[in-house]
Amino acid sequence: MIRRLLRDLLASPNLDARRPVVNERFESSVPGIYVIGDLAGAPVVKLAMAQGNDVAEAIAALPDARTPDPDAYDLVVVGAGAAGLNAALVAQDRGLRVLVLEKAKVASTIEDFPEGKWVYAEPDSKPPKGKLWLDGARKEDLLARWHQIIRDNNLPVRTEEGVTGVTRLSGGGFEVTTVKGVYRARRVILASGQRGNPRKLGIPGEDREQVYHRLYSPGHYAGEDILVVGGGNSAVEAALTLSERNRVTLSYRGSGFARVFKDNERKLREAQASGAIDVVLESNVKRFGESVYTLESGRGSAKKTEERPYRHAFVLIGAELPAEFLKSLGLRLENEWTGNPWLALLLTAFTLASLWMFGGKDPIGAVAALAGIAALVASGVRGSRWAWLGFSFLVCYTIYGAKMGENLEFFPYRGWGYRFFSFAGRPMSFWYTVAYTAVMTVFGVQAMKRWGFDRKDRFQIWRYVSLLSFQWIFFFLVPEFLFQYAVKYEWVGGLAKDPVFAGQAWRSYGIVYAWPLFFYTFFGSPHQVWVVWGVILSFGLIPLLVLFHGKRYCSWICGCGGLAETLGDRWRHYAPKGRRSIAWEGMNTVVLAAAAVITLMMLARDVVHLLRAPAEMGIVWYRLIVDVWLVGILPVTLYPFFGGKIWCRYWCPLAKMMQLFSAAFTRFKASRFAIYSNDKCIACGECSRNCQVGIDVMGFALKQQPLDNLSTSCIGCGICVTVCPMETLSFSAPPPLVQIRPARS
Predict the structure, then answer these.
(1) Calpha distance 186→169 (Å, rounded)
(2) Sheet holding 211-212: strands in order across?
(3) Residue 301 pLDDT > 90, yes or no?
(4) Are residues 164 and 262 in the same domain?
(5) 703 conformational bin, left if phi > 0, alpha if psi -120 to 50, beta if neither
(6) In 10 A of CB 562, how many CB atoms?
(7) Domain extent at residue 239
């Protein structure tokens, strides 16, 4: 059971298909091999073309872009789709010797579209890049233009020549092996996509001639018994089209069609009601015979097995990443837990033991600790993800364990850690704040460039300006400098002479941090100014902010959320996803309840003396568990593995309190916060992939349902709106439809 839970936890960031790990230049974990297009997550043709153009330009600009070997190519492109063709055309135009290898036909994904299908040129806001032509057109017209461009540019494209292997040569470059020959290349671009690898049921008879995994020409079928298997838009659209002239059964293993367009769902209900399509939910095809298939449907005691006739069957259950092929090339995939966990654990424990031996004095312990850290890093560089987890834990445990205070540090820092990190006349707590602000600034500027400037998105620019401003002003300058100046120069009037107020600089964090995030707002001998402000902030301003902006405090203001949105941004796609991960969000209800109970006990302990001991014990445990482990050590350790919002999503009591407020406002139709969808969703999944709190944003977009805090833990960061290539999502409600009646004559 524990092993299964661990496996489910480690796999929770995965969507339907993982991608190869690439850097910002689309170079894979194998230097010299680049990955673009569908494999790299390009959701639409125009963006795939842009990737091809950008990679080709970058490669052509390298000083060693051209090989001195006259028998080798400068660049071999695997895949003749939008990304691959555009990359090859641009690279050839820049003077590189290029070869394109394609296992099927040119633009085979588009070639496989149904006859007359329209190919869109979205997003409209971005002009096409490169030499391929792209405008809204029927597939036949688009393909004709592309073939003409290939001929006009004399681009060498070898179709029906699938690549079987790519091997690095000792002298540099690669040897590319295909079903027909062997080629040498300085660099390789993989643009083969994954739609050419249809997912299969893996049952007897699936290889029969009458069983297909694509629907090419629906008009060729008439008067037949046809089976369609699948629950996505491709399957539903195929069933609807085929039902016009045939008797169609649609089999789907799920209990409902959660991933289909709103209009497709409506049409399917109508077709089912009219008897045009027999929809069999919670069913599985067990085998295909010559003229009948075996269908198992129902659950438990209601399960039944029957044989049904068919002439043709279409298994349309998506495509699979060619994982085995990619791994054979040495490429790493996202969220692969590689390496030896026991070795990583041993090295981590060895390092901590060595630090205990060091104790601030023994140099042998210091040398041993450095050796342990070096071994972890070396193991990580060689590909061990477990080693990086150990290293990440060491860093975070050291920071938060030593920051507890002098003689309060965790093992092995007890008695020396706080002093060791205190220097230049400043305590470790000061340098922690300096480091926190510096890290947020460096990575915040990078994130601002990524989501704001590069995409020309003013919303994201101002969001990161807000996060960095709050961090610098309210979480660094005010508590560390301005509060002291305010007291020294009497900027706060008579309060400057009040020793209670003057000695509570640390409480200035509560100017922006609301209870229960700033847990000590109402106890610990606060000045009445802090108590009054705490009430106004927590139960006045926060609900007002939530009314209009939902939980945007987490993504625009909060320092905890700020670190997640800056340092944690590069790993946002690793956020746990799925129903189970959403169920885990109930943990923050427990933390909120604990904060409320302990606070009430602390306030009542002088009246009800029996509460004094449990209240003070509650403070000790809350500080240890929540303020150290749940807000610091664990979530920051897990940034590179589960994204940046572990604390905000699962444990933050203020986030939970805001969600309760927002859900109540939504329930009573008072909330002004939601994300809305139009009818342009193409089910690319980019919105769900990049959601730091693991929301199935695409599911809402497909159904055109508002996404709010009654149904999700959305923090209003807007990244889903930013990444959508079709401009489907918006914070503004779409205008209501108006029925125009013809004028009376």
Answers:
(1) 10
(2) 211-212, 312-315, 225-229, 247-251, 277-280
(3) no
(4) no
(5) alpha
(6) 27
(7) 211-315
Q: CATH number of the domain at 171, please.
A: 3.50.50.60
Q: Are residues 121 and 45 in the same domain?
A: yes
Helices marked H in 166-261:
233-242
If asked whether residues 154 and 124 sit together in one domain, one would say yes
pLDDT band at 395 (very low <50, low <70, confident <90, very high): very high
Query: pLDDT tens for residues 641-691?
Result: 999 999 999 999 999 999 999 999 999 999 999 999 999 898 889 999 999
Tokens of 468: 């960095």
Closest by CA to 652, choosing from 667, 633, 636, 630, is: 630
Question: What is the tens place of the pLDDT at every residue in 15-44?
Answer: 666 789 999 899 999 999 999 998 898 888
| Contact (Cβ atoms closer than 8 angstroms) between residue 644 and residue 565 | yes
Q: What is the largest CA-CA distance in the chain?
A: 100
Bridge partners of residue 294, in order along the sequence: 287, 307
Give the pairing type, strands 182-190 and 174-178: antiparallel
Q: Three-class SS of residue 511?
A: helix
Classify strands 157-158 and 137-138 as parallel, antiparallel or unpaired: unpaired
Shared domain check, 78 and 216: no
Residue found by looking up tokens 């940046």 in the block: 644
Percent of the chain with pLDDT strictly greater than 70: 98
- Rounded Cα distance between 167 and 28, Å, is 14
User: Do 231 and 179 belong together in one domain?
Assistant: no
Same domain, 148 and 73: yes
Selection from 333, 381, 371, 254 nearest residue 18 by Cα:
333
Is 306 part of a structural domain of the chain? yes
Which residues have a Cβ under 8 Å from the Cβ of 28 and sit 6 or more positions away? 20, 21, 22, 34, 35, 190, 331, 332
CB atoms within 10 A of CB 676: 19
**Tokens matching residue 726:** 């079709």
Q: Residue 596 and residue 604: Cα distance in Å, rounded?
A: 12
| 629 secondary structure, DSSP code | I
Angle at 141 between CA 139 and CA 143, to 5 degrees: 65
Rounded distance between C-alpha atoms, residue 120 and residue 96, angstroms: 31
Cβ–Cβ contacts within 10 Å for residue 4, how many? 8
pLDDT of residue 734: 75
Q: Is residue 18 part of a domain?
A: no
- Residue bearing tokens 């390009």: 42
DSSP letters spanning 129-142: -SSS---SEEHHHH
Q: Which residues, at least 6 apart from 181, have a Cβ–Cβ distance to it below 8 Å? A: 161
Tens-place pLDDT, residues 589-625: 999 999 999 999 999 998 898 999 999 999 999 999 9
- Tell me, what's the pLDDT at 117? 81
| CA distance between the termini of the chain | 75
Q: Is 9 exposed, middle or buried (0-12, 13-18, 19+ CB in 10 A)?
A: middle
Strand partners, 119: 137
- The total domain count for the chain is 2
User: Domain end: 252, 281, 315, which one?
Assistant: 315
What are the tokens at 613?
Answer: 């001991």
Structure confidence at residue 125 (pLDDT): 79
Strands 312-315, 211-212: parallel, antiparallel or unpaired by DSSP?
Answer: parallel
Average pLDDT over residues 117-126: 82
Q: Is 525 within the bounds of a domain?
A: no
CA distances from 183 to 31, 89, 98, 104, 314 (A): 18, 19, 11, 18, 37
Long-range (24+ apart) CB contacts under 8 A made by 287-290 are 287/203, 287/204, 287/205, 288/203, 288/204, 288/205, 288/206, 288/208, 288/210, 288/211, 288/313, 289/205, 290/208
Q: Has residue 486 been placed in a domain?
A: no
Same domain, 74 and 222: no
Amino acid at 649: R
Q: What is the DSSP letter of 41?
A: T
Taking a C-beta distance cutoff of 8 angstroms, is the pair 445, 569 a contact?
no
Cα separation, 347 vs 714, in Å, equals 38
Q: Are residues 42 and 100 in the same domain?
A: yes
Looking at 315, 336, 363, the residue that finishes a domain is 315
pLDDT at 741: 65
pLDDT over 60 (residue 745)? no
